[in-house]
Amino acid sequence: MATTAVLVPALAAVAPAQPAAATPATVPRDDSAKGGQALTVEGISPQTVGKKSTVKVTGRVTNTTDDELADVTVRLRYSRYPFSDRSQLSSYASGDGAQPQVGGPKTELDKPLKPGESATYSLKVKAEDMRLRDFGVYPLAVDMTDGSGHAEDTRYTYLPYEGESSPDPVDIAWVWPLMDDPQRADDDTFLSDGLSTSLGPNGRLGRLLVAGAQDDDITLEPTTDASAPPADTPGATPDAEATATDTTEEKAEDGDGGEKGDQGDKDADRVPVTWSVDPALLDDIARLGNGTYQVLQQTGKPTATTGDAAPTTLSRDPSPTAQQWLRQARTGLDGAPIITTPYANADIAALLRQDLRADAEAAVSLGGETVENVLGTEADTSVAWPAGGLMNSETRDFLSERGATTFLLSDTALPARSSHGGTPPAQATLAAGDSGADATALVVDSGLRDALAQPSRGAGDAALASQRFAAETAMIAAEGGDDRTVVAAPPRDWNPGADFAANVLRASEKLPWLDPVALGDIEVNAKDEAQRGRLTYPEKGAQSELTGTYLEEVDEVRKDIRLFNTILTDDTDPFRPAILRLESASWRDDKTTAAQARALVARAVTLSREDVHIIPGETVTLASKTGKIGVLVANDLEKETVTVNLSIYSENNERLSVGKYKKEMTLRPGRKTTVYVPLSARINGRTVLNLSLQNADGEPISEEVPLPVNATGLGTQALLISAIGALILVIALAPRALRKWARKRAERVGGSESAESAGAAGDGTGGGPGGDGDNAPGAMQHNGRGSSTEGERPDGSAGSGTATTGDPASDTS
Description:
20 helices, elongated, membrane, transmembrane, transmembrane helix
């Protein structure tokens, strides 16, 4: 048997190319290699083998131990007997199946591997030398052994072989998921930064969008550094990307590996894909790119989300990554068939069981509206994909009433009849339920789902995952039968490598036993109906639903929301999406995050209600019997207009009473208003008024605000007593005031007469010309001081000892 084995040393990124015969190049030891994969398979070509093919397996060996490895050998093993049943594929991949016994080509390193060192290998063998039989899937293994023959590592994979002829093609319809767990609690708070990362060119949702669109014009601006590992791909290496490329080139080179013809028009070669989206995810992405938002800080410790402790959040600017993803999604999904889950993939079965039909209806209607608002296109409401692919009769009737005529189900919900061997067709008829009409069931192939869920992002993963997909589909085709269809729907949280996601779509077109079709083109015939049983809702389906206890806790939040909604002027329900996110089927298996999200929503509702509030004032002093106070009411909400009623009551109506005032008021977002309230005080003292806001039904929507009022004014009786006292005082003081006035009048009259006499005497003492002695030259001036008198009498005469004004005897000059 002619075989070829080539060993190529591993090179540092900057090292020049080395001859094939060179010894392994030493690379810096990488501590992360310890305990990792010692053997990787990075390429298997062609993906499906023809009689004239040359099978080529490439990869890398690494010393992941602390000791030097000598006499390392890499070899192929295979079997000349194909698998006889699909179930054997899974057991073989885990190493539990029958081991292939035929030895193939091998190669030995001519130099020991030091700890952390790597070397690449390449093994080739002609298909005709392998002496494989007819069409089928054959076991293939790659071993790495040490000098003693001990297997350091083994990789198990598959070799689909066409043989002389291939069976009739099987139709394959793709459902491509753009889905995730709810990313927000309330509308402005994200549970993590994971979504923003996932939307990038190397993120999960970024890879799914680009691969599913199958359009070179759809790009998320990938990095130009090909050596950089994907952002959310731990341990990825550049070799994983090179693997898929090498495989494709080999297929083109060999020419008989299942090619169906030359590459034609881009649109003609595009594999039909039906996009399945969760409207809540689109809503989350749109919010991510629209305005600042908050992200719950991940500290590695339980986050305080209950009680008075505020959770720690970080502010983020609008995400350009989210904006770019949405632009590309609108282009890539334009005109393509789109189906949706209810908003946030709400657990419809649990909601109906707990008599929450209104929430179930809201999830369906909001889902359709969101897709149209975000993507600008309508979703196909005739296709429903219930949570977990399971539904009971109540869920089926509910979805049918809302337009669903086709249901994507798991093979547990619609199992194959025991008399049927192999894989039955995906399509079947669901007998009429309470809705009164038959429906179509499309069963997702669980084997393909598991194959697609294989690791495909790490070093060497893509090649093995691609072979598993080819093997699964080849086994289905080998079962025989006419006009059969399978539905390939990866898990909703599918996280494939970019190359693997693109390769499985290309393989659907290129593998000779597959024929891609659109999901909407699948039809049911009588033969299909006979191969599957009746609709089944297993016990594990009911047990997996959101529990009644959990939904009761959500209902407590809903009660607070209902109270908040009663003050909104417009008929809106701003927290409805948040409640639907809390009712997502995603929380079936993640109770911790569900509890965290629920607490955050409850807190957001409380804070929103508190944004409509009374602004506390200072203690009021009422200085009279009556008066008015101003009560300031504010609406600090950013979007909602509210209508509230102001309630005021006095703790002591006998002392202080409240008059009539305008109770109802409407406040636009960010506005304030003052309500003037009349008060009446009967008794002086301190009384507390209790102020609160209520809805139209009198239910309080705010905490009471105490407002102390001090009444210091006089009452009627006190005023009467004061008036009588004042009158008595006036009567008592009036005679004395009259006597005092009479004395002052008499003094003024007497003073005038004395002044005239003094003037006459002055004229006879030799005053100079002009007759005024005071103004004569050398005359002595008066000191200007007048005399004061005490003991004035009622007649106005001066008492004894009073000096008169102008007496020369009193002059002190």
